[in-house]
Amino acid sequence: MAFTHLHLHTEYSLLDGEIKIEDLVKRAKELNMKSVAITDHGNMFGAVNFYKALKKEGIKPIIGSEIYISKGDHNSKTPEDKEYYHLILLCKNNEGLKNLFKISTESWQNGFYYKPRVSREFLREHSEGLVALSACLSGEIQRKYLNRDLKGAREAFEFYKGIFGDDFYLEIQNHGIPEETYVKKFFMELSKNTGTKIVATNDCHYLNKEDAMIQEILMAIATGKTLQDEDRMKFDSDEFYFKSEEEMLERFEDIPEAITNTEEVAEKCNVEFEFGHYHLPNFEVPNGEDHFEYLKRVTLEGLMERYGFDGKIPEPVLERMEHELGIIKSMGFVDYFLIVQDFILFAQSRGIPVGPGRGSSVGSIVCYALGIVDMDPLKYDLYFERFLNPERVTMPDIDIDFCYERRGEVIEYVREKYGENQVAQIATFGTMQAKGAIRDVGRVLGLNYNFVDRVAKMVPFALDMTIDKALEQNPELKEFYETNEDVKKLINFSKRIEGHVRHISTHAAGVVISKNPLVEYAPLAIASDILVTQFDMTTLEELGLLKMDFLGLRTLTVIDDAIKMIEENYNREISFKDMSLTDPETIKLFRDVDTIGVFQFESPGMRNFLKELKVERFEDLIAANSLFRPGPMNSIPDFCRRKNGEEKVNYGHPILEEILKDTYGVIVFQEQVMAIVEKVGGYTLGQADNIRRAMSKKKMDVMERERPIFVDGAIKKGFSAELANGIYDDMIDFAKYAFNKSHSAVYSLDAWRTAWLKVHYPKEFFASILTSIAGDQSKMQLYVDEARKFGVTILKPSVNESNWVFKTEGDGVRFGLKGVKGLGVNTVRAIMKAREKGKFESMKEMFDRVYSIDKTALNKRSIEALIYAGAFDTLGINRRTALNTYDGVLSSLSLERKSNIEGQFSMFGGAGSAKEQTAHYEEFDDDELLAKEREVLGVYVSSHPLRQYEDVIKKVASTTRNDIFESYEDYLSNGVPMKFSRVSLAGFIKECRFTLTKKNEKMAIISFEDLTGLIEAVVFPSQYAKLQRYIRTGAKIVIRGTINYSDVREPNIIVNDIEPLSLIDKVYIRVIKGCGDTVLDTAKDFIRRNPGTSEAVFYFEETGESGVFPEAANLNATKENLESLKKILGEANVKVAE
Fold first, then answer.
1. What spatial distance separates the first Cα and last Cα of the chain, rounded to whole Å?
2. Distance (Å, rounded) from C-alpha 543 to C-alpha 501?
């Protein structure tokens, strides 16, 4: 006798299943299970992963799903349709698998109403090749029987029996729930009377009995409940786990045939997924021409355009083309290239910006000829085999970058061309990450929000961060875990659910296109109202479906917008051919490291690298893009010293010199590893790529198997065995870090184009890039400051001049209304439409004209945002007046409209004659005006609260807030220790709050702003008493202190000292003849007790000497302090220099 679990929910039941597939396989082997089924709720998300994992371990996978049956038509979606029944479907064969695909797809595509449902009728039409089980207590027969609808229960039984015949089984369960006993008795009677067989199942939701609490937590997360909620959804026992055969026999000892029948079902079910067989869509070639011949013809046409000279294509180019086309044809990918070229040509014909390429496809001369990529693979020594390897048959992978705003148009074109049923976007599965798991579990456990938030924030921000890693890396978290029982409980539960699948969503870029309707190869679902595959990207590729990434790249939009503005402003066409890769001004921009806003080259770490690198040519950028990432960064110092002639390069052999000369003997690119294996070891390029892959994936068995072959080949080429082994070891070291040169080269091309625009057309460049980041206030200040550095004035928003986007105007850039917080696109559209009749002359006129276009366009929030942004300034009304009168203007207009409607006329002249409000208010003071401006724009435009202090700040501040945070970003991204410890910052206090320590001592937490942004500063009790007189909102000060930071905490400043910030540069003090030591000491003591930023220079009249006393070097040169100093030394003996 053998038992098979036929009712099992994995984590793909989305928070209603705790079982991870890899854990299930281990447990099934421990229990000596010969077969297991997967029946996730309403989907097949995990079916292929389940199939592969069980097959690998010699366990038979049974593919199924627990579907939802609607009470009526599944297309109906009224409150009465909320009720549904459960049914288990298992695939007997591949026909059944296709039918289950169709049932699951229909339930999502047309039947989704709270759950993905199908009707009885649809089930009947697609029942071939399926086994059905009556499911749990939520099955239709069981539900009706328990509701005492015996007639309905028998009718439901007859319906399912009529459809499935001997492939319909009555399912009984025993989780210790009384209703299961009633159902079992009824089913035994039904079985006896009808000959229908019974199967015993356990409704497996978790793997082990002790995991019941984890399932409870997952369900509470799914339903938004806490464990304390009495009405939450929960199981009635802790028996819903993966039981052994012995446990099941014990539970069903009175009906052993129910156990035996599970084996019968398992034997019926024999599904085989087909991997590696491609289902490429058919590309329609004009005039019925042979597909390969057509590809060759258009490739030759493209090569003539790219390389042609005197009507001829150079022989090496033709040889490379023949080589590539031969591989493409032999691997069956002719149509693939034609399909990609087609949708790129569509995008170009519609003016949709397309990137110059991405990834290893840049190494293909066919792609270059077809216009799929825009970089010459021969010039930059890029390998086709890195893209398409004839010795490793895998689908080509051409990812395309499009303008991020118009990517959807290309997807829609593909959908229309190949058919709605043959194109879909691709699902991705969101999993519970460390911080999110802690927050979810904390809420479910009913723990205090701030307490949970504190624990979650102790988890470092880092790629692939886990709770275990966080405990290792953050001593504070580890101590908290070990000393606080609530934290221990929170962390332990969170670790159990970490990594679990939480939800389905849409892959950011993936699109799949198939030869026949997709549902023949994979089930479909709906995610965020988009039709997606139920399988992820990797699974689809394994099933032979054509997957492409249609990526949205913001940089392309920036470049395109800038070029359009240039053409409009200067009435000349700009093309990429104008952006010569030897342009000296662009090289100088990289050499001077003016790369803020330049794609791939603006991060703090990269800018530091460029300082060392000293860029001299475009190829340096390709190397920089590859080197600047974890691992290769260790080679940066060697690379820079060798490039700059500070260290001699020893290649060891002429062949190596030929391969590594462009990177000064450092292995930087994957293509270099391939070249060494080919040219030193004597391999083909296809074999070389396979070895490179093995090295990058650290497959030691493959590497050691190939070592003697490589060494033998090297010896034949004149290498010593010692040198050959050394080279092999170096390759193993570097291969795991080496980067794809094709991708690095083409992204360097995108970088070059942005840099060229920045240096030659800064106005247009900054208008474009500011539009692209509008709303991201963290970047707005950075780019505005950079624009000013390049001589571009930023003009404040204006209702008469601003558009939605930023635009050039004169020598500056007009702030776009897209960047004003509180304004929506409909409001701006109405303003721009109203402006077509001419510029507004008053606020009232603007309100009136906008209202006539869209009555909902203006409201309190949008009007005040426009006021604070300065958008009404050009109408001759100051901001405080506008703020205090706009409501009256609106009321006046409302009254006029009402009068017009009623046909009434005012005694003062008739409808519509209400005058503009005439009240006038004094403007906000500068600090308040600028604070409000920054609030809505994210940046100061009119001026800056510290603008008049800039020269003083340069002298007294050792660094800026931006420099500190850039160094911190470098630390987080690349592990580079922060270069600051003790700092001086000059700025003003934006906000301050005071608090008491546990010892009841007062301290202050300051939000401090300098010319570049905000940083937190902390004044502890030890310094507070001494410094409290300087701590007030708006105070302009210099703070000195130490930087405090960690992996989980942004930098702040622990304040040691504060001085007032003064505009007075120097205070000159004349010590007259006869002035005694007492007076001098009194003056020095006064300066010492009132420190500031103004240098105190003493001039001794008697000797003619002048200088500064170290103990009294700087004075807080307030009016009061200067008056006090004059009283000590005499009115005529104290002078200031500003």
1. 99
2. 22
Tokens standing for residue 960: 């800026």
The amino acid occupying position 503 is H
Distance of alpha carbon 488 from alpha carbon 473, whole angstroms:
17
CA neighbor of 620 nearest in space, from 651, 642, 605, 604: 642
Q: Where are the alpha helices (DSSP H) in 498-603?
A: 537-542, 554-570, 584-591
CA angle, residues 521, 525, 527, in degrees to nearest 5 = 140
Condensed to tens digits (0 to 9), the pLDDT of residues 188-244 reads: 999 999 999 999 999 999 999 999 999 999 999 999 999 998 888 889 899 999 999
E strands, 729-859, in order: 793-795, 807-809, 812-814
The pair of three-digit structure tokens given for residue 90, joined into one six-digit string: 């298992």
What integer pLDDT is reported at residue 433 of this predicted model? 94
Helix axes 741-760, 554-570, angle to 10 degrees: 30
Measured CA angle at 796 (ends 818, 753), to 5 deg: 65
What DSSP letter does each residue of 14-73 carry, written as one string?
TSS--B-HHHHHHHHHHTT-SEEEEEEET--TTHHHHHHHHHHTT-EEEEEEEEEEESS-
**961: enclosing H helix or E strand:** helix 961-974
Q: What is the phi/psi pair of residue 86, to 5°?
A: -100, 150
Residue 1's pLDDT is what? 58
Structure tokens at 1036: 């302009």
pLDDT at 394: 79
Backbone angle region of 135, left / alpha / beta, with phi > 0 → left and psi within -120 to 50 → alpha: left
Which residues, given as ranges, of the chain have pLDDT below 50? 902-915, 917
In whole angstroms, what is the distance from residue 1102 CA to residue 48 CA?
Answer: 96
Asked if residues 831 and 817 have their Cβ atoms less than 8 Å apart, the reply is: yes
Helix residue spans in 350-418 (DSSP H): 365-370, 407-418
Residue 789: CB atoms within 10 Å = 11
CA distance 677 to 727: 10
CB count in 10 Å sphere of residue 39: 29
Residue 529: name the closest of 509, 500, 501, 504 by CA: 504
Distances 71 to 111, 133, 170, 591, 619 between C-alpha atoms, Å: 12, 18, 20, 71, 67
Place of tokens 């300034």: 873
